[in-house]
Amino acid sequence: MKTNTREIKSFFYSQYFSDGLRMMIGILFPSLVLSQFGHFSLGLTLSLGALCICTIDSPGPLGHKRNAMAVGNLCLFLVAVITGFARLNIFTLGLEITALSFFFSMFTVYGNRAASVGTSALLVMIFMMDKAEKPAEVVGFSATILAGGLWYMLFSLVFFGIRPYRAAQQTLGESVKDIADFLRIKAAFYLPDTDIDENYRKLVSQQIKVSQHQDAVRELLFKSRVMVKESTSTSRILVLTFVDLVDMFEQILATHYDYSRIREKFKDTGILNEIGILLQHMADEVDNIGYVVLSNRRNKFKADFMAELENLKTRIDEIGKNDQTVSTLALKKILINLRDLNDRIKSLNRYYSSKSAEALTGGDYEDEYSQFVTHQDYAAHIFFDNLSLSSSAFKHALRVSLVCLVGFILGKTVAIGHHSYWILLTIVVILKPGFSLSKQRNYQRLIGTVVGGVIGIAILTYIPAKDTQLILLVILMMGTYSFLRLNYVVSVIFMTPYVLILFKFLGVGLVFEERIVDTIIGSSIALAASYLIFPTWEYDQVQDSLKDVIYANVMYLIRIAESIAGMQVGTIEYKLVRKDVFVKSANLSASFERMTSEPKSKQKKVKDVHKFVVLNHILSSYIATLASSVLGRPSVPNQAENLKMIRRSIAVLNETNKKLDGKVIDFSFGKATHSAVPAIQSQHPDDILLKEQLGFINKISNDIARVTDGILAG
Q: CB-based contacts of 301: which residues, under 8 Å, 6+ apart?
């Protein structure tokens, strides 16, 4: 019960609910206020402009929001004017729909925020199609829509300006909770009843969420000059928390071992079950920290795992004494990682547990941490360079324009009722660059419309009171926008009764049947087009993800090799290659997940790709483990032998990337460097374990090479 209460509270503290509240107020406010002065129609037009611009109001730095919404408002006005005149003739309207659908769908080449600007422009085009404005009134009506868009833009900027750190806190809190879930999945590997292959699938799926949230936090923290240059304790704590959080994630990755082997080796001791339970308790504490960050409060109850760690050490020592033929090196390494993880948890707790956090000092982070974010290029040549069938963005834009034209024709010929624009609206919302995303949105839209429609009819039938309906309208509207990014099917379930109640207030009557029919038509066209018109299948794209992740791992290994060779590896330099591995691995996992939702006939080499995803996760985990062993050490024994093993692994990965037409990196530095450093031979247990890890990395590298050959053989 406590967990359920925590989840509910977390939702209300989250950015999702904050977004829903902001969008609901921004859209509804003009209509409610002006209706009190007898200008409801004017208020409705202003709300229409706000509705279109709110699609651009996605999480990100305030400056990016401002610029995107400013461009969105310009597009909003121009498209409203063009559509207002084009609709006077059905042929010019059809031509405009085709041309603008293509043009604005091409905005995907500039990233997600630019794509949302394109979506905003397409929305106003769709809503203007059936507006019976006279030619002399078109510009004035379009200016009113623009005023609504400008109102929402100003309201949103003020909303964030009042609490400039809140969005970063919310996103950071959600990122902490993602890592807690990742840690729980890792803990399951040590439990005897866990299916290892299935757990790997869960792990790589969760890694996608972790990476997405970490990217969102980087955007908010490191692309904002206020955050990285501000001297307040709040900004310092946010930056330091995130830096420690990424280090913690690496530490969790470093708790990776050959689970099948250690299960077989220690199955009768019960030690693995104890490790798994301890990791779950640590995950619960990380979850608590996430809630503290999300709710913006002090952490009064802090867990300390020192007693459990000491008990675990005693158990490991007992296993070694009872059976001296069994090496407990792996267990001792796990214990070290658990202690490091405990230290990082305590470090995070210190930021939120006392007023001493306010005394934290921080420097100017801008120069260092600005390197951790990517910068979008908005040069015009990118648009024109993608005007080719070799570009997935171009094929997507062509598909959208053709399908919108078909939807427009069907809306004018076979659709029932007076809201045929719902067909186009469904198409624009559902049709995505890849088949799997379009298919997913399709099912979610249909299920949400049917379930939401039933709820809407029940409300209108059994709750006739206007005041109650208005209250429900506000709640449903808030739910629509709160779940828009979190759970789309739930968002549509809220949206459908909200639309039905709204139309009832507007005197249109019950439009459920019309909405269902138009949604089915739009969904069917969009899904068929995704399969038939310039389809984009993940197998055709996955090779880019494969070579990117191999290159990232090679760079990761080179930094380790430099450290072993006695070269100075800077902290920022190391963290940049580590971040690249995390991001590229998440991209590969996301590509694989999309592949599994495509038609079976299009899932080429899906088993081999899955093997590659798992092997890549194991490889990056072992490199993280290796990094924790060698980075910062003044000298590493058996240097020449260790460097030789790393060079072998890099050579295998380079050769594999060459087959994928990827980048190949020169790694000859190791041969020249190790001769200058005296060879230190050691039989210390840690150094023996280091050699075993290097051998396992070499084995995994060769396994990746074989799996890649299998993928390319198709």
A: 288
